[in-house]
């Protein structure tokens, strides 16, 4: 009897970049029901829900009372319910405490971790071929940020919704169901048929970081909205109208900002290390992506203006105390294969 070789984060990275990788979502779901649910969402989401269409999903930012980022959330509008799914790390208890401080309209019901519901996702340049197995129409008709009713092969009575939304810059889909175990098994079977595999966090996080979504894993590290480069997620015409917005400050060219830097392969940096230019400190290392891409290391740092612009040669000491070169780079760092893979 032979056993399959153990997969590494490099294997998982290659799977997401070349075929399709599946993973179970562990973040706590929230279901919000009632006719006034959009009014509730507008109390704390930094983008208005006034023009949100049914059967769609969008990404939105929620703030703490002091204006710092609380979480990035997916907001689904499905039937008579709104669903929230955190993209950044937040616990169910933290979500409950956050939502309890809001003025909830009488007809609105909030359920954190509604019983029986869960989600799975699959991403990669051939992910669309997996998604096609869960709908009865041409999968190319499911546009980005659209949601549709779905069916599970072995659970015809189960409720399921398929959304075209992802985290990696490759084709991405999310399956939300009240039979999450059966849904995940169905996803794994369909992914295997297409030559894909289940993937772990390390390889997935690396692809997310290269796509410009490193904060999903790295968190906010005490950064402001502007420092975390999340100003684009704020509707600045609504300042004073949503939780925490009174303390927001418009970004300026002089603001320090989160930036991506490339380093030689196998370089390892400790969070808090100084980033220098010509011997002068210009920033601080905040997080390093997993080393799943053998070509280079990818580091996030908070850099003073104007050192966050791409193409600058900087430096930092590695874990052994040796100075290593760093170069500011643009994101996405890798050209997604999905850009040249047609849904057919």
| Cα radius of gyration in angstroms | 21 Å
CATH superfamily of the largest domain: Probable tRNA modification gtpase trme, domain 1
Q: Mean pLDDT, rounded to whole units?
A: 96
Number of strands: 17
- What's the order of the H and E elements? HEEHEEEHEEHEEEHEHHEEEEEE
Strand content: 25-35%
Helix/strand-derived category reads alpha+beta
Taking the alpha carbons of the first and last residues, their distance comes to 40 Å
Explain how this protein is built:
The protein has 344 residues and is an alpha+beta fold. 17% of the residues lie in helices and 28% in strands. The protein folds into two domains: 11-205, Gyrase A, domain 2, CATH 3.30.1360; 252-334, Elongation Factor Tu (Ef-tu), domain 3. It has helices spanning 9-18, 37-41, 92-100, 127-131, 180-193, 201-210, 215-218, and strands at 21-25, 30-33, 56-63, 69-78, 81-86, 109-112, 118-123, 147-149, 160-163, 172-177, 197-198, 257-263, 274-277, 280-288, 297-303, 313-317, 323-329. Strand 16 and strand 17 form a beta hairpin. Helix 1 (9-18) crosses helix 6 (201-210). The longest helix has 14 residues, at 180-193. It starts with 8 loop residues before the first helix and ends in a 15-residue tail after the last strand.
SSE layout and pairings?
Layout: H1 9-18, E1 21-25, E2 30-33, H2 37-41, E3 56-63, E4 69-78, E5 81-86, H3 92-100, E6 109-112, E7 118-123, H4 127-131, E8 147-149, E9 160-163, E10 172-177, H5 180-193, E11 197-198, H6 201-210, H7 215-218, E12 257-263, E13 274-277, E14 280-288, E15 297-303, E16 313-317, E17 323-329
Parallel strand pairs: 1-11
Antiparallel strand pairs: 1-7, 2-5, 2-6, 3-4, 4-5, 7-10, 8-9, 9-10, 12-15, 12-17, 13-14, 13-16, 14-15, 16-17
């Amino acid at each position: 009897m032979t056993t399959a070789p153990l997969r590494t984060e490099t294997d998982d990275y290659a799977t997401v970049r070349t075929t399709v990788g599946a993973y179970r979502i562990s973040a706590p779901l929230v279901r919000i029901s009632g006719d006034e649910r959009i009014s509730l969402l507008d109390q704390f989401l930094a983008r208005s829900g006034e023009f949100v269409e049914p059967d769609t999903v969008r990404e939105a930012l929620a703030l703490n009372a002091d204006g710092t980022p609380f979480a990035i959330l997916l907001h689904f509008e499905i039937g008579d319910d709104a669903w929230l799914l955190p993209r950044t790390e937040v616990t169910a208890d933290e979500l409950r405490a956050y939502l309890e401080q809001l003025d909830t309209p009488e007809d609105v019901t909030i359920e954190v971790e509604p019983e029986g519901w869960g989600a799975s996702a699959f991403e990669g340049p051939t992910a669309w071929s997996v998604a096609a197995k869960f709908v009865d129409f041409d999968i190319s008709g499911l546009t980005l940020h659209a949601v549709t009713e779905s069916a599970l092969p072995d659970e015809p009575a189960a409720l399921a919704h398929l959304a075209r939304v992802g985290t990696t810059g490759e084709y991405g889909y999310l399956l939300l169901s009240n039979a999450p175990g059966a849904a995940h098994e169905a996803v794994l079977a369909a992914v295997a048929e297409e030559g894909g595999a289940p993937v772990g966090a390390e390889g997935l996080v690396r692809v997310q970081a290269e796509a410009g979504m490193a904060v999903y894993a790295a968190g906010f590290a005490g950064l402001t909205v502007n420092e975390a480069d999340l100003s684009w997620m704020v509707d600045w015409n609504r300042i004073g109208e949503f939780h925490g917005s009174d303390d927001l400050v418009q970004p300026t060219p002089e603001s320090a900002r989160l930036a991506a830097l490339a380093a030689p392969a196998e370089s390892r940096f400790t969070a808090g290390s100084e980033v220098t230019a010509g011997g002068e400190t210009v920033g601080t290392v905040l997080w390093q992506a997993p080393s799943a891409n053998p070509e280079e290391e990818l580091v996030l740092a908070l850099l003073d203006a104007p050192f966050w612009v791409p193409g600058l040669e900087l430096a930092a000491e590695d874990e052994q105390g040796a100075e290593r070169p760093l170069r500011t780079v643009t994101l996405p760092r890798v050209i997604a294969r999905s850009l040249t893979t047609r849904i057919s």
